[in-house]
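TA notes. Do not distribute before section.
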Amino acid sequence: MSTVQVQNDQFYQAVTYVFKSWTALKLAVEMQWGGIDSEDKRDWFVDVVVEYFGKHGKETYEEDVESILQQVMADEFNTLLEDDSAYQVSKHLIKLYAECIEGNYSSVDLLRSRHTTSDDGENVNVQMIDAMDTSEDISSSNQNKMDSSKKEPIIDDEGFQLVTKRRK
């Protein structure tokens, strides 16, 4: 196998691991926000991103990749990203691509080793390395604070959940 093919294969695997661990996309697939073929859409999404990097090479910019990520999430999964995750993922993908074309697969190997399968065959959430680690730590501590203040949902006689306004 040629060096270029190995680089492409490694990058393809990296994008796959990143997408399977990206919380927004993972939820969209699990909840089938893209329909019953959400997993196929995720796989197609990987192909789109890898192809984009293949066409643009080192001339790939974070904002452009972020725009693609946001557009596909909106169009295919009916999901508007308001959490800066698309930008973080785009930075991570650009870093991985640069490493792959240099023949450095250590980050891909790390993603691969972190990407384990649980007993029931579902993918375990893989934390992204790089700047994602610190932002996840911050968001998880904020989430714990929010979880403690959540109230139980109110369900009426017909089984519908009462929606209440959030107070600011």
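Switch to the second chain here.
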Amino acid sequence: PPSSSISPPMEIPLPITAWSPSPSPPPSISPHAPAITTSPPPSISHHHHHLFLHMPPAQTSPSPSPFPISLPNDSPPPAPKTHSMITRLQTGSIKPNPRYIAHLTELPLEIEPKTFTQASKLSHWHNAMLEEYNALMKNNTWILVPPSPSHNIVGNKWVYRIKRKADGSIDRYKARLVAKGYTQESGIDYFETFSPVIKPTTIRIVLTLAVSHNWVVRQLDVNNAFLQGTLSEDVYMSQPQGFVNTQYPHH
């Protein structure tokens, strides 16, 4: 606490003078008014007295300001806390947690091409397309015929996929040649559609038998699968891009 200095008592002489009103002149007497006799007021003498005031010793202490001083604050008042958790905003720490800075994610370096122009510039994608084309030719999937104005020529495109292993590494590059079936009209080019896929019920039956008999289940990937059947309608498709026959380029 601040040190305070104490002064000795002080005696201050204050002169006090007794006051008496000055004598006023006698009132004038009207000749018609009754006479009133007045006696002069007693004379009051002036006396001087001294009054000594005993003041207590003064003690210096810091006096509080009568008005509170408020400093301007531009920030809004903090919201009342409804929980015991301390946030980074309350502590003033806006830096990110270093535990999440070291989190690494492996991004795929290989990107699947979307067009034939992109895939033809890369040797591994060109080899994948060549493998698909040779498999189609080996199975005698089509024969080259001259076009006719009455035929609806269906286009085709290459679809590229990257097959990966369980650990995320690349297994092989897959290219498929698919026909643009959406250019056909129902009732003119075809009458019904089908998809050569297996039913989920069959898969569940096979897995149930494998579990009950303790069979070892293995998975394999087939490079090319062909439906062994004869089509009842003729389908005319243009030659695949990049593998057009040089002898019959317009077939």
